[in-house]
Amino acid sequence: MPGLRAAFCTFLLSAAAPAVAEMPRLSLPIDCALGETCYVEDYVDTDPGSGQRDYACGLKSRDGHRGTDIVLLSFEAMDQGVRVLAAAPGIVAATRDGVTDVAVTPDNRAGIEGRECGNAVRIDHGDGWQTLYCHMKQGSIAVEKGQKVQSGDILGLVGLSGLTNVPHVHLGVLKDGQIVDPFQPQATDTCGMASGGGMWRDAPGYDRAGLFTAGFSTAVPGFDAVKSGAARVRETAPDQALVLYGHAFYAKPGDVLTLSAAGPKGEIFRQEITLENPQAQLFRAFGRHAPEDGWPQGDYRGYVRLTRDGRVIAVRHADIAVTSR
């Protein structure tokens, strides 16, 4: 779930509140079609302890996660430009731009401190209600402080800024500075959406199933190595096999895992695997042996996609570099 996922950073600059006083009703904050060109990946963590739990008591959150993540299916989609939209009417309270669109790594993590939200917009809806839109594309912010906006107005573009490694928008909802789960705004600590769809005008559907991770290896790994992370290889030689794996949870019979990979000369494989009798957790892998003259040196990216009846439930990506060593 975008691993190193969108942490909710401090982004609470002062601004005058508009006259609207009731709880805002939210529209989707991104110009995409759920299940077709995007999907909801992570929700607000409703577990008060050190664990994580989404509003449906499922696995789709991270410890301390403070928003709803809506993720694009690929980096290519981000490059084409996907608009971030105001979820409700209000007044722009603050903006930030100038954060580079770079996936977070252990090497650059320290440079993101204090700017985990990346390029962002915060909108004031009155009576202490605010929404926050994180990880937007550098240079794309289309509004300014003090500007009135309506639901669906363009705020900018989906990017890769801040504490993230996948292109997505992180929507945070606050009341008097405290995070609110838009699916369960009264924080009832029950399993399931609040009556009336919570704060949503048209609440996104929920899927229990998802993907924990994807990775490259140089042979089909064992399940223990997949779960521990030991299977992941980030750099390899031209004569080694390239194997992509995906780790899924709560899949149903008939769900499809699609594993694909591409490198400097284009796609190297694509395989669809129909899950006939899935377990609570499972992994599948597919790959190719190196060609006789070896893989071309350069960067390779793989995608693992979980679909049900043609509807996208989750996507994970993995990267590996082929070097001359």
TrEMBL record:
The keyword Transferase does not apply. This is Peptidase family M23. PANTHER family: MUREIN HYDROLASE ACTIVATOR ENVC (PTHR21666:SF270), PEPTIDASE-RELATED (PTHR21666). It holds the Pfam family Peptidase_M23. The keyword Transferase does not apply. Keywords: Signal. Residues 65-182 form the M23ase beta-sheet core domain. Residues 1-21 form the signal peptide. One of its GO terms (molecular function) is metalloendopeptidase activity.
